Amino acid sequence: MEKYVIHGGQPLHGRVEISGAKNAAVAIIPAALMVRGVCRLENLPQISDVDTQLRILTYMGAKVKMINPSTMELDCTNVQIDNLPEEMWELTRRIRASYYLIGAMLGRFGEAYSTMPGGCNFGVRPIDQHVKGLTALGAEVDVSGGFINARAKTGRLKGTTIYLDKVSVGATVNIMIAAATAEGRTVIENVAREPHIVDLANFLNSMGADVRGAGTDVIKIRGVKHLHGGTYALIPDQIEAGTYMAAVAACGGSVQVANVIPKHLECISSKLREMNVQVEEGDDFVLVSREGMLRHTNVKTMPYPGFPTDMQPQICAVLCCAPGVSVVTEGVWDSRYKYVAELKKMGAQIQVEDQAAFIQGVGHLTGATVKACDLRAGAAVVVAGLAAHGVTKVEDIFYIERGYENLVGKLQALGADIRCIDEPETPSARGPVRWAVI
Ligand code: EPU
To answer: What is the pTM of this model?
Structure first.
């Protein structure tokens, strides 16, 4: 079993280049299913979730040509959705973003089916807002037996006004994709405003769609008959950047976090400044440094432009080292504190009550053997291990590799003592392999 071994306690120095955004990639790749022609996608992250999405599309007949590790040409001209093999459904069950296939298939073929996206890591993850939106566009949607089946009643979806009862990234993405080729005008109100929503809109527009208002809470889409090929470069990953910023906050040192959009990081930068971390913005980088003691603070996660839930575990790991009491409140997911048990193995003092984590900062954490419970939980234990005294072993790193490109190499270049080793596992110590839903 592969695991990370970290000898913690070193400050980080140097420059780290941030990869393309995972959550943009996993929306844009299925959206490319709508395109008759070649989409050249640049700045793609090399992560296993992207591989999984591409393998799914390949089963449907898409042609994938890698130009270099982060640039790809994806041709979905001849995709089809009949008699898709069981191997493909095994992949759609692994990742959350596979449900974007529903919006894309409906838009392209007027009918769609896929599996429900697997088990669940942080509480109930309903899809009622996806179903509400697609139904309003004129689809009959049936969710049963672990599958989602949908069919446009008149063969083609029809634009309408949809109000989302809950701000949802996934529902916003699915409805945007489906509405891009619907007949007439669609207005989606109370939508998510995350950077990857804007990125998806920009991608769709560069392929011939007419999507306006992304980044505000109302998106207006005039449906077009077909999308055509083109070239699109993805935005950098806000959360990957935030994770390196958190690592510098926890370890001290000075790092240029490069190839970022500093505006996307403001919610993270301003929290770190409250914690006595210096963050200076350049045009496409932030310089993060810490010399003095960390200061405790309170954090509440919210949809963008609030503090991202996907940074909640990493910021908790940093706050474990800040003297005083910090309160972190989770405002998006019902249950995102499973990793707290892992941090406690490293000496963290955290009490979770409902959606709040009360953190009593300790002088320093101590290395231990811990597990990545999900993608960001895995990032949090790596951040904790980098700052801790002694040796930390991180197990179940496949979760981390779903969303972080070359984490070990990038951290080593900053002076961290982290290695990936392959150690035989003791069967009695482990249960069955689980797949994360991210
Ligand atoms: N919700 C509903 N009904 C729905 C959809 C969502 O009630 O139909 C609720 C959820 O239960 C949750 C809230 O709305 O309480 C927000 O869920 P959202 O739909 O925004 O989340 P998602 O689309 O499933 C994406 C990211 C997550 C990130 C969330 C929130 C992808 C593939 N995943 O999930 O990213 O936490 O938005 O920002 O884009 C990660 O990258 O580690 C990750 C988990």
So the answer is: 0.96
